[in-house]
Amino acid sequence: MTEPYHYLLMIVLVLFTLTSVAALLIWVERRLLALWQDRCGPNRAGPLGLFIVAADTLKLFFKEDWIPPFADKRIFVVAPAIVAATVLLSFVVVPFAPNLLIADLHIGLLFFLAMSSMGVYSIVLGGWASNNKYSLLGALRGAAQMISYEVFMGLSLMGVVMLSGSFRLTDIVLAQQDYWFIFTQPLGFIIFLIAGVAETHRLPFDIPEAESELVAGFHAEYSGMKFGMFFIGEYLGITLISAMLTTLFLGGWLGPVLPPILWFILKTSAFIVLFILLRASLPRPRYDQLLEYGWKILLPLSLINLLVTGAISLLTS
Amino acid sequence: MTTAWYITAAITLVSTLMVITRHYPVHALLYLNVSLISLALLFYLMGAHFAALLQIIIYAGAIMVLFIFVIMLLNLGQETATQEKRWLKPKVWIGPCLLALILLVQFTYSLSLSKGETYINNVVEPKAVALSLFQSYMIGVQLAALLLMAAVVGAAHIGRHKRTNVHRFLQHKPDES
User: Fold this and answer.
1) Which residue in A80, A249, A290, B63 could disulfide with A182, CB within 3.0 to 4.6 Å?
2) What residues does each domain of chain B span?
């Protein structure tokens, strides 16, 4: 197959798969939450309630797409698109299986970090453009939380980069042929997992939304498909962080017997289920507790992790 | 590649121009953001991949968010925009434009003197950046670290909580913080 067609095919394939996965996650999350809370969950529409996804999507499309008259219209419209766009762009560098990826950038890891740092804008701008006090508070919290946790996210990954000697994600996966990095970088793994939850502002850390205090936080004024975009962006974010955890710490596509792509899907879905379990079991911390926890515990820990990894790799080389 | 370079350069120039002509502070900051990102793309096209992504992570992703954060906290509304509009009358533009024109003349003159070198697309690996930073430019790294250290100490001092007890029973207690 010629190069451009291969690229185009990969892009369409990845885009289609990801959007369907994100939509399916709505159903998966509701069913799993119901399971853990001893309820039935959505089980009426279709087999096992699977058509709830279609029903939800249709409902969102037919809702009135309202822009408040006091909002900054252009920014209000652009903000939800940013989150979906940045997360989808991050998937450009994720290696799903050998030769099954869009672009093998030699600085792929940095590209992922850059895109995740651009994702902050969707919360900040969405909250600001709504011109609503609750939204603004949510946006402020979101900005503070995501900027802080980005720092540890980057630092916790540098141990992996040191061990594999490359920013290229394929090289990082191939460097884990003997042992996964979760065994040599357990601290980095835990910090990245926590930072990942904070970065996607998922439930224990959903402080920008915090419906019990801020109505719905930064997206209080959004309706219809614009709200749907934030929603899909969140599920895409979970998928992205799970895929990155798999690639960086769990050996990506590597595994015996089964085909590589199946291993990748298995490990990624395990992390997605973990994310949902976190939502089902943990209460939301207070805003200042979250930031203090980040700067006072996670930052020193990630620096120590960096120092020790550097010292050991110097000694062994 | 050259076409892409020129398109990106044009975007950079236009967005930078928009930064100084916008009346709303947040709109100006967003254009500045576009300008920073397109600058990063220029770096990328010239082969400095590592610098390009650091530009996005640090400038567009962190520093600009802090700027927008502060502007949002100030909650500048319609009044500031009209005030800005009053300040930016056409008469005000004459001085800066004249000075910029002199610079432009100098720039074109110095460009006409050069041998017309085209940019070379040689990819700089992150390893090469690190080696030059920690070997030949070590002193620069150390000085920057020193400066940042001073900034951190200053921020910690300014941000320290002075706890005041409002209740009369607690007022005579020694300061806890």
Assistant:
1) A249
2) 2-123
| DSSP single-letter state for residue B142 | H
- Contact at 8 Å (CB) between A240 and A91? yes
Contact A166, A177 (CB under 8 A): no
Q: Which of B57, B72, B125 shows the shortest C-beta gap to A114?
A: B57
Instruction: Give me the pLDDT at residue B151, please.
Output: 93
Confidence of residue A1 (pLDDT cuts 50, 70, 90): very low
Q: Are A134 and A60 in contact (CB under 8 A)?
A: no
Joined together, the tokens standing for residue B67 give 């700027």
pTM: 0.84
CATH for B2-123, options being 2.102.30.10, 3.40.50.720, 1.20.1300.10, 1.20.120.1200: 1.20.120.1200
A147/B66 Cβ within 8 A: yes
Q: Spell out which residues of chain A touch residue B62, defining contact as CB-CB under 8 Å.
A: 117, 147, 150
Determine if residue A210 is left, alpha or beta; phi over 0 gives left, psi from -120 to 50 gives alpha, anything else beta: left
Residues A285, A293: contact at Cβ < 8 Å? yes
Q: Which residues of A touch B72 (CB under 8 A)?
A: 124, 127-128, 136, 139-140
Question: Which of A75, A107, A147 has the CB atom closest to B62's CB atom?
Answer: A147
A117/B125 CB distance under 8 A: no
The secondary structure of residue A64, as a DSSP letter, is -
Q: CA–CA separation, A173 vs A98, rounded Å?
A: 10
